[in-house]
Amino acid sequence: MEQPVISLRGATASLGSRPVLRGVDLTVGRGEVVALLGANGSGKSTAVRAIVGQVPLTGGELELFGTPKRRFRDWARIGYVPQRTTAAAGVPATVREVVAAGRLARTKLGPTRKADREAVVEALELVGMADRLKDSVNALSGGQHQRVLIARALAVRPELLIMDEPMAGVDLASQEVLAEALRAEVARGVSVLLVLHELGPLEPLIDRAVVLRDGCVVHDGPPPEAVGQHALPGHDHVHPHAGPAAEPIRTGLLS
Question: Could you read off the pLDDT of 160-188 as tens digits, one per residue?
């Protein structure tokens, strides 16, 4: 069996004194697209932030590309898109500068090379923003700003792409553009872990869904049918490995 790009086993983590992850197992294979779903407070974002090193694990094991997290150094292999915030508002930077920052893991703060400039343009073309290269990021709409943040992650030309709610607050046109960009990355063999509120335009790309509830995995397998674009509020989806008395997953409450 080929080594997974992400292997999280028995992971526990807390925010302050509150346990958030309670023994989470999560794997992403090479070339696989995995959606991480669950209600607010279920631990989705904490899980991905633990994977990229922003939240320490209090227990369990994490391996990236077969290397234990404590020894992993090759972060240029990973592109990360955090939840979109307004934190970048007011920053006097151009679209080109923001996306070029995604190359820092490869350039090590050295001089910009031709390969770096080409990677920036290619990433912006993927998200349909190449014509805004010289514009200030403050002149962009919310959807355009999200496209730029995704281009920043793509500019590193990652083998693994981790995205936390990439479609949140993004207009439908931008969602379609981002879905097409992601489709191109998947076609070249990139592995993807997505935290999603709903599958939407990304549904055809999803190989497997992992559903969290209260910091525990309650479903790992095909995406629950009610979580997609035509979600039915309150629809129950039972864990495929659970017994007849198992508590259903209320996929209409996913967020």
Answer: 999 999 888 788 888 888 899 999 999 99
